[in-house]
């Protein structure tokens, strides 16, 4: 045993794992050590984190594989304690298919089936395999399982299982269970490729559990593209979202392409183009060699793409995006691969809809309703984050405070509706001039704040003056409008986030006092 592996776990943690291997519960281990159940749970969590696993059985298997402990010899009439202990709730057609798959895996022990329909299709298979059968899923949970697979399709059953299952038991249900069912059926029909399909199922299961916790479009896009390319053994892929308002596509994730590819992050649908062709499909679109087209996509040709497999992402009859996987050589695709790609597309569509809803709700809490800029609270949150980042990496960043000159007078002369038009047009000019990395916010009334990461004083002042030039040359509804502004830069203008705001604000009023329509720094 080398030093690197032996230092993973303490002597006491190894003892705990050995007792787990023997089948002892947390309560029994606690009694041996004179500790509470919660203390043992805490130790088990640390053990699983150190070994990079999510349950007790995997922890034992991983420790044995790393040489930290010896495998035990199970009794002839008992399953190995290192096996994954699985229970299935619902044993209809899906249960029968999944049992056929799981029974062949030596590392999985099917501890029981819960089914209250005596005519369920999978019961006969379970009886042939001598798997215990109960009619109440609560009794199945009490066995003490590593994984529970809920195939009932009932949300009520899933909620009830979540309430009563132990913390270490993983519950696989909903979309994950449906996906497992379909993959198991595919595997049963193509028995010769059982090993490959099982690995595909396991990967998709992990994808399902991963994306359930994702709440950002970029993270969701990257995860889906990454899993799709790995499952189909493709070196490149991407995902784009359809913007219904602008009627164009927005790239949210890519893999395997050059940096130039990522810079073209929006494109319109052109008649006869590849995107339009995919949009007219209801199933995956496959092209073994892109060069076979009379007018191939020039961007993909420049990247060296030859093979294209893409699918429209459809939710409730609406196309919300496209998922692509690509190869840089001509190739053929198996029917099995297209089937799996279709399943990923189902995941992708539902995930995008869920994440869009989350992002829309989040946007309502951080955006100013009139201008569409970030509100005061969000700007302050980002300011503190940027301050921490710059302090940690010893980099500069600047804060620019700006205020519309004589705005009260403008409102008094032309009314608040015209004043609101000025605020909205002014905000558009800010967004047009700012970089993608800048945070532009309405700080209150007619005052605005811009956070400019990585900009030193000189460049921040030049940036602010460009905004002044844009504003002063813009034709507003009633008369010319100007701005005054102040710039503060970290670290020379303040050691704290609020210091920078205060310093920039002071310089803003200095600009007002010096005649307006200028920047002070």
What would you note in describing this structure?
It is globular, with a radius of gyration of 30 Å. The protein has 21 helices and 16 strands. With 521 residues, it is of the alpha/beta class. The protein has four domains: 3-65, Arc Repressor Mutant, subunit A, CATH 1.10.10.10; 84-191, NAD(P)-binding Rossmann-like Domain (Rossmann fold, 3-Layer(aba) Sandwich); 214-363, Beta-Lactamase (2-Layer Sandwich); 376-520, Reverse transcriptase/Diguanylate cyclase domain (Alpha-Beta Plaits, 2-Layer Sandwich), CATH 3.30.70. Helix 21 links the parallel strand 15 and strand 16. The protein has helices spanning 3-6, 11-21, 26-33, 37-51, 56-65, 93-102, 123-128, 137-141, 155-164, 174-189, 194-211, 217-231, 259-263, 274-279, 298-303, 335-366, 376-393, 407-414, 416-433, 457-473, 497-513; strands at residues 84-89, 108-114, 133-134, 147-150, 170-172, 236-243, 248-255, 266-268, 285-287, 307-315, 318-327, 397-404, 439-444, 447-453, 483-490, 519-520. Helices cover 49% and strands 18% of the residues.
């Amino acid at each position: 045993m080398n030093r690197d592996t032996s230092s993973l776990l303490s002597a006491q943690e190894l003892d705990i794992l050995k007792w787990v291997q023997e089948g002892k519960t947390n309560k029994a281990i606690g009694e041996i050590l004179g500790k509470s159940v919660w203390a043992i749970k805490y130790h088990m969590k640390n053990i699983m984190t150190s070994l990079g696993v999510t349950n007790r059985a995997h922890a034992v298997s991983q420790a044995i594989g790393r040489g930290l402990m010896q495998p035990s010899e199970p009794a002839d009439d008992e399953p190995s304690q290192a096996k994954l202990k699985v229970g299935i709730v619902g044993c209809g057609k899906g249960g029968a298919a999944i049992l056929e798959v799981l029974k062949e895996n030596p590392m999985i022990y099917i501890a029981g089936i819960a089914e209250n329909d005596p005519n369920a299709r999978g019961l006969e298979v379970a009886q042939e395999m001598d798997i215990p059968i109960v009619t109440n899923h609560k009794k199945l949970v009490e066995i003490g399982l590593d994984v529970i697979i809920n195939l009932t399709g009932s949300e009520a059953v899933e909620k009830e299982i979540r309430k009563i299952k132990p913390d270490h038991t993983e519950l696989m249900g909903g979309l994950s269970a449906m996906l497992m069912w379909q993959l198991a059926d595919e595997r049963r029909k193509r028995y010769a490729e059982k090993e490959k399909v099982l690995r595909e199922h396991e990967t998709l299961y992990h994808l399902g559990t991963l994306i359930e916790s994702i709440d950002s479009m970029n993270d969701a896009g990257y995860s889906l593209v990454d899993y799709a390319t790995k499952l189909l053994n493709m070196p490149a892929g991407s995902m784009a979202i359809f913007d219904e308002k602008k009627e164009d596509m927005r790239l949210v994730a890519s893999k395997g392409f050059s940096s130039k590819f990522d810079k073209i992050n929006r494109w319109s649908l052109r008649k006869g183009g590849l995107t339009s062709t995919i949009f007219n499909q209801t199933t995956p679109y496959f092209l073994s060699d892109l060069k076979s087209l009379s007018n191939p996509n020039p961007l993909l040709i420049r990247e060296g793409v030859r093979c294209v497999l893409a699918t429209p992402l459809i939710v409730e009859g609406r196309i919300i995006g496209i998922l692509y996987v690509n190869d840089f050589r001509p190739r053929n695709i198996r029917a099995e691969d297209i089937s799996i790609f279709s399943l990923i597309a189902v995941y992708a569509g539902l995930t995008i809809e869920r994440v869009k809803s989350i992002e829309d709700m989040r946007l309502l809490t951080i955006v100013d309703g009139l201008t569409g800029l970030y509100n005061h609270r969000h700007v302050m949150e980002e300011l503190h984050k940027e301050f921490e980042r710059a302090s940690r990496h010893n980099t500069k960043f600047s804060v620019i405070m700006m205020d519309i000159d004589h705005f009260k007078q403008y409102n008094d002369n032309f009314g608040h509706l015209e004043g609101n038009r000025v605020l909205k047009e002014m905000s558009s000019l800010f967004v047009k001039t700012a970089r993608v990395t800048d945070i532009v916010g309405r700080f209150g009334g007619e005052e605005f704040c811009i956070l400019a990461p990585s900009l030193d004083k000189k460049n921040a002042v030049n940036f602010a003056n460009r905004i002044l030039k844009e504003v002063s040359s813009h034709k507003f509804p009633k008369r010319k409008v100007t701005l005054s502004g102040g710039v503060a830069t970290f670290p020379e203008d303040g050691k704290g986030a609020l210091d920078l705001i205060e310093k920039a604000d002071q310089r803003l009023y200095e600009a007002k006092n010096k005649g307006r329509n200028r920047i002070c720094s």
